Amino acid sequence: MADATMGAPGAGARPGLFLRNATGLVKSWSTFDAFVYSFWSVNLITLGLYGMSYAYTVPDGQVVAAILLFGLLVTFLVITYAMLVSVMPRTGGDYAWQSRVLGGGLGFVLSITGWWFTLFLWAPIYANILVVQFFSPLAYTLGWTGVATFFTSQTGIFVSCLIVLAFVSIVVTMGMETYARIQKICFWIGIAGLVVVCALLLFASPQDFQNAFNREATTLFNAKPGAYQATIDAASKTFPGSSFGTLSFGPLLLLLPWLAFYLLWPNWGATLYGEVRGAKDIRKPFWSMFAGLWVTVAMVVVVVLLIDKTIGWNFYQSANAAYWNNLFAVQGNVAPPVPIWPYPVMFAGFLVNNHLFQALLIIVMGLWFFGWAGTLFLSSTRVIFAAAFDRVLPSWAANISAKRRVPYGALVLMIVPSIVISAIYAYKPSFTSVFLDATAVLALTFFATTVAAIILPWRRKDLYQASPIANYKIAGIPTITVVGVITGLFLLFMLWEWSFNSADLYGTTFSSTPNSVYYFLATYVVAVVIYVVARVVRKRQGIDLDRIHHEIPVE
Amino acid sequence: MPKIFFATDLHGSEMCWRKFLNAGKFYDADILICGGDMTGKAIVPIVQENGHYTVTLGGETQSVEAGQVADVEAQIRRKGYYPLQMSVERLHELDQNPAKRTETFQQVMLDGVDRWMGMAAEKLRGTGIRIFVCPGNDDEMEVDDVIRRSDVVELGEGRVVEIDGWSMISTGWSNHTPWNTHREETEEKLGERIEAMASKLPDASKAIFNLHCPPFKSGLDEAPAIDADLRLLHGGRALRPVGSTAVREAIERHQPLISLHGHIHESKGAVKIGKTLSINPGSSYEEGMLMGAIVQLDAKKGIKSYQLVNG
Fold first, then answer.
1. Do B283 and B30 touch, CB atoms closer than 8 A?
2. What's the ipTM?
3. A45 near A348, Cβ under 8 Å?
4. Is A417 helix (H, G, I), strand (E, B) or coil?
5. What is the separation, in whole angstroms, between the first and last Cα of chain B?
6. Is A240 an interface residue toward B (CB < 8 Å)?
7. Smallest CA–CA separation between B126 and chain A, in Å?
8. Consecutive 10-residue runs of chain B (311 residues): their mean pLDDT?
9. Residues 6 or more apart whose Cβ sits within 8 Å of residue A29
10. How many helices (H) does chain A have, and how many strands (E)?
């Protein structure tokens, strides 16, 4: 049955390995396929444009430089995760790594809060993005003002939340294979849409845009003539203006926590890489995540430069400032003449005086949402499964239906709380600050994983030494430790700024958002309670949870 | 009441086998069951030339002195590969001659299993711990003969064995795979094979089905989708059920107390199929981690408790 030989790099034509025919010996996955997933995770249109619309809070921050710096720093995160995947390539991602290195209890609490409880908060965030990038601009463009207004109402936001949750449930039900096909279609059509947007911005002049904006502001939103300048004037009451050319290091650093909203997630699929053979080869997961990150960085730099060139950076930031400051009722704010989130895609569409074209462009660019949002709960499902298999959660949490293979237990655990959280988001404006912390809590989960990576060579010497990365060292120190320390410092900086920024730039400081502090403390307490109860219950059943990750002696 | 430790798909990892033999004492288990696919998938040549030895492991080629060869061999075995010292001429012969490769593979595999049987005898003789092994679809048929010669390890394949009042049936045969391995057959024949054993069970509710292949669409059988060229599809994210319908039907029909499976390393889990608890502990043999299941049986409850562990 022996039927294959494998050459050894550097050893000429000599085979370094003889393989026999055996189950599971597959050829590796296409890096491009994995890249598509990573690329969606740092989605430059949905999360990217939404997150960057808050950059006006740092008027002196140079966005392009900040994006490049962020890309560089997140590359260390990518290396850290790729190395962890190659050491422990089994499913569960953060949960498995933290549990095996930091201990079962700590691993459960940190990863379950990040990958389960915090993702409840992302459903409304996704819903809000769906409203501001799809429903609302599309409805306004088609002249359906009533529909547009409805989706900006509390009930409209809640309905959008339910649409997102229904969509995510359908994706989980149809399975990843079908959705992966849909993602690829969305990818190519979405890229084509982006090319059109970029071309429109590239070939139009600033004056063309001002004229187009003024025209559509009047036609679609009944604004008075001169809406372009009126937008800048409205923002000027609460916003000092922004210059694209300003470059100073301090403000640049302050932009990083905003960019984290979309650029911190190239490792989103790390919980999945572990499921596939070939993951032990560090190059595949690394290049998949790295390419997803840097292609996005390159694209977003192009988009930002084009926004500056044609739309005007000060106008774009003024429009963002006017919109958000009006929404958050900042003292002294004046409502902008165009009462809609400043969507650069819609603005680019204005350059063509045809509402059907504009609507089509919004629909096409909407595929950036539908090709991405379906995986919202995919990683959460894996973490819930892993915890259920470890008997920390009840076994029904990992149940799947026999006919359609739907993980209904995990879905219920995600969907039901998400509906409750969505209702709170929609109908309790005072609770909104909690949602701004959604990024920070995931960053905290990543930080815990990074700590696990830093100490891995000593805490799990056996696993480390058996791994492909055991020989990677910098000045005698394991590379995973070095890159882990850099990643950890980067994450700590952002966690500090989110929690303690003196100007409360991000709306998330402990002192200004006690609701958030109570909410997240409560989630950690709930996670601890679940773990402690599980320990007690399982002990009565004769199951010792400590035993899960205890290594059996070899000799 | 007996406590079972079940692990599977060790694929030649000597570290996992050593851990498996120690699992009885470590988990206080009375019965050790190895679910199949014991043998490794690859030979790593250690080429002797000019007074030193050259070996390629993990993509890196290194040259070692004679005194270091034992350490290198241990490192290779730990990963589940077979180290084999050879001359440059032998290396080229194996490279060029598929029949020679097949013959060499069989020899190193059988030597490896024989070596493992010796380790089991040394470790478990006189301890009162029973150890069952049932070769899987990746194990050549000759492996059974090596196991039969052991006076400590019991071969499970194709028979009903009694375990302190419970009965166990075992088979390492599977439905067809894209790799056309040693113990594959149609669903119909696999069903007949299982039925031939199951029909002899005195009480199915006190039975253990040790069937290498997991039941179809159980969640224990989800493997990454591949194309005809064995290339992973959709970045490896797309999973497909590849288990056996015959195994599922046998479980649904007889409703044994518990069914133990392997075969699909990524599909770790424990699910209920009717009254049956079906378990696939997964396999992480390349890391040297022994993934297993501890099952405490109980005269009244049937299963008092179960736990999946990464030992």
1. no
2. 0.84
3. no
4. helix
5. 23
6. no
7. 18
8. 94 93 95 94 90 82 89 84 92 90 92 96 95 95 95 96 94 93 95 96 95 94 83 77 96 97 92 94 87 93 91 86
9. A276, A278, A284, B224, B231, B232, B233, B234, B235, B236
10. 25, 4
Binary contact (B41, A88; C-beta < 8 A): no
Q: Among residues 409-438 of chain A, which lie with CB inside 8 Å of chain B?
A: none
Alpha-carbon distance B258 to B255, whole Å? Answer: 8
User: Measured between CB atoms, does A2 come within 8 Å of chain B?
Assistant: yes
Which residue of B60, B239, B311 is in closest CB contact with A176? B239
The values of phi and psi at residue B96, to 5°, are: -90, -25
What DSSP string runs through A435-497? HHTHHHHHHHHHHHHHHHHHHHHHHTHHHHHTSTTTT-EETTEEHHHHHHHHHHHHHHHHHHH
pLDDT for the residue numbered A280? 56
Interchain contact, B287 vs A467, CB within 8 Å: yes
Q: Is the pTM of this model over 0.90?
A: no
- Find chain B residues with C-beta within 8 A of A538's C-beta: 305
Structure tokens at A516: 């958030």
pLDDT, tens digit, for every residue of A354-411? 999 999 999 999 999 999 998 888 778 888 888 898 899 998 898 887 777 788 888 8
**pLDDT, tens digit, 9 for 90 and up, residues A117-152:** 888 889 999 999 999 999 999 999 999 999 999 998
How far apart are the CA of A446 and the nearest CA of chain B, in angstroms? Answer: 22
Q: How far is CA A82 from CA A282, A398, A462, A477, in A?
A: 6, 26, 18, 18
Element (H, E) at B307: strand B302-310
From the centroid of its chain, how far is CA A397? 25
Mutate to test the interface with A, among B232, B233, B280 (most CBs of A within 10 A): B232
For residue B91, list chain A residues with Cβ-Cβ distance below 8 A.
14-15
Q: Is B140–A1 a contact, with Cβ atoms under 8 angstroms apart?
A: yes
Q: Which of residues 18-37 of A touch B (CB under 8 A)?
A: 18-30, 33-37
The answer to whether the Cβ–Cβ distance between B79 and A385 falls below 8 Å is no
The β-bridge partners of B222 are B241
Q: Which of A3, A6, A18, A277 to mutate to test the interface with B (most CBs of B within 10 A)?
A: A18
| Residue that is written with structure tokens 């795979």 in the block | B177
Mean per-residue pLDDT for A177-202?
94
Q: CB contacts < 8 Å between A and B, how many? A: 245
Answer whether A540 touches B (CB < 8 Å).
no
| Helix spans in A154-248 (H) | 154-174, 176-203, 206-221, 227-236
In chain A, residues 108-137 whose CB comes closer than 8 Å to chain B? none
Q: What are φ and ψ of residue A220, in 5° steps?
A: -90, -30
